[in-house]
């Protein structure tokens, strides 16, 4: 009845597929990476690796139903684009977003350096856009390395007076690897020593060619200081979004990803989650990374309490049993029992992995001493 692909089982146990194949061979079972093995074999081999097995491991998928591949396309409707603002330190990412939001985040930040990721929902005349501001590229990388495609478009901010810098190239490489379209915002165009052509030239050396230079990347000169080019930038984002034909089904159990999370002394674990599919509602049970919880309250990016959040909406949730990591998946489930079961199972797996790691360390140090 129950089967699992060998590679998937190995991944879930946090061990190399090859090690599992060898272990199976020792048990007289010949299997390849992509082969499915039955429950009994899986249980045996897992036990061999020191895991305690319960059937829930196989039920996680059915409980979570995170797969959207088979979903009826007619249920999927247009959603807003999710845009990540990236670029070298101090090139004006937060300032630009600030102008876009017409509020003042930069002035409220310690030393003007972004300490956390902000996730914002911005309504423009021609449509809504979700923005992610990044301090570095860690969260973006974390999400990407877990296979989460959270961002639809990257705005690469390059200061016109500074040109392409190391983190500009880094951001560019992340965007390229994630296969996300890039819009270049040449910022600080108000500065007397601003040289936008230099930015174009330097980026062309990294394979990014502006449209007026015969390429296909949109460039726009902007200034967060004098507010030049902001409507044009937003226009480009919405244009690009149209090309991408972004859709999601708002009428299903929600799936989202943690953008940032922290422990609040008064309110407990807080997680900012960007919703990708479905609609999350206050009072619902969710699994979030290794933790779970019943959503006690939700807040939008303006700090206002909301009762639900749909696709492309960032929302801060309260009620989790622990602080998840940036990049963790959040999935709404049917009830608290399901949530507890999945989370309990994941915690147990994490502990088993930790134990396995520690025992290996002990063994190694033992050999060292011999
Ligand atoms: P990190 O979050 O630290 O990576 O920086 P950031 O890219 O978010 O830059 P931030 O918005 O904090 O701006 C850095 C400095 O550049 C601040 O002093 C801003 O006032 C200034 N600045 C940003 N945009 C402009 C602009 O268009 N023109 C001028 N003249 N200064 C700008
Ligand atoms: Mg910033």
UniProtKB/TrEMBL annotation:
<comment type="function">
    <text>One of the essential components for the initiation of protein synthesis. Protects formylmethionyl-tRNA from spontaneous hydrolysis and promotes its binding to the 30S ribosomal subunits. Also involved in the hydrolysis of GTP during the formation of the 70S ribosomal complex.</text>
</comment>
<feature type="binding site">
    <location>
        <begin position="187"/>
        <end position="190"/>
    </location>
    <ligand>
        <name>GTP</name>
    </ligand>
</feature>
<feature type="region of interest" description="G-domain">
    <location>
        <begin position="81"/>
        <end position="229"/>
    </location>
</feature>
<comment type="similarity">
    <text>Belongs to the TRAFAC class translation factor GTPase superfamily. Classic translation factor GTPase family. IF-2 subfamily.</text>
</comment>
<feature type="domain" description="Tr-type G">
    <location>
        <begin position="78"/>
        <end position="245"/>
    </location>
</feature>
<feature type="binding site">
    <location>
        <begin position="133"/>
        <end position="137"/>
    </location>
    <ligand>
        <name>GTP</name>
    </ligand>
</feature>
<protein>
    <recommendedName>
        <fullName>Translation initiation factor IF-2</fullName>
    </recommendedName>
</protein>
<feature type="binding site">
    <location>
        <begin position="87"/>
        <end position="94"/>
    </location>
    <ligand>
        <name>GTP</name>
    </ligand>
</feature>
């Amino acid at each position: 009845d129950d089967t699992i692909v060998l590679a998937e089982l190995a991944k879930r146990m946090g061990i190399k597929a090859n090690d599992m194949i060898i272990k199976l061979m020792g048990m007289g079972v010949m299997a390849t990476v992509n082969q499915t093995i039955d429950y009994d074999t899986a249980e045996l081999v897992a036990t061999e690796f020191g895991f305690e097995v319960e059937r829930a491991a196989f039920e996680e998928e059915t409980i979570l139903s995170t797969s959207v591949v088979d979903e009826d396309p007619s249920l999927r409707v247009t959603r807003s684009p999710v845009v990540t603002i990236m670029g070298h330190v101090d090139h004006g990412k937060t300032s630009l977003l600030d102008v876009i939001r017409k509020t003042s985040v930069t002035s409220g930040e310690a030393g003007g350096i972004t300490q956390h990721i902000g996730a914002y929902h911005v309504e423009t005349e021609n449509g809504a856009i979700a923005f992610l501001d990044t301090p570095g590229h860690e969260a973006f990388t974390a999400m990407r390395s877990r296979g989460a495609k959270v961002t639809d478009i990257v705005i690469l901010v390059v200061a016109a007076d500074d040109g392409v810098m190391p983190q500009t190239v880094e951001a560019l490489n992340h965007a390229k690897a994630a296969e996300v379209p890039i819009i270049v915002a040449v910022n600080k165009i108000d500065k007397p020593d601003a040289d936008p052509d230099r930015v174009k030239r330097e980026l062309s050396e990294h394979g990014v060619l502006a449209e007026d230079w015969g390429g296909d990347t949109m460039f726009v000169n902007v200034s967060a200081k004098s507010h030049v080019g902001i409507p044009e930038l937003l226009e480009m984002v919405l244009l690009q979004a149209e090309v991408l034909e972004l859709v999601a089904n708002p009428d299903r159990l929600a799936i989202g990803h943690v953008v940032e999370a922290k422990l609040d002394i008064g309110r407990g674990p807080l997680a900012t989650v960007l919703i990708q599919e479905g609609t999350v509602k206050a009072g619902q049970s969710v699994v979030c990374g290794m933790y779970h919880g019943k959503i006690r309250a939700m807040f939008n990016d303006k700090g206002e309490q909301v009762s639900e959040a749909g696709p492309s909406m960032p929302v801060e949730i309260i009620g989790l049993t622990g602080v998840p990591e940036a990049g963790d998946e959040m999935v709404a489930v049917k009830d608290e029992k399901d949530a507890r079961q999945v989370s309990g199972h994941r915690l147990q797996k994490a502990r088993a992995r930790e134990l396995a790691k520690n025992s290996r360390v002990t063994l190694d140090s033992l050999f060292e001493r011999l």
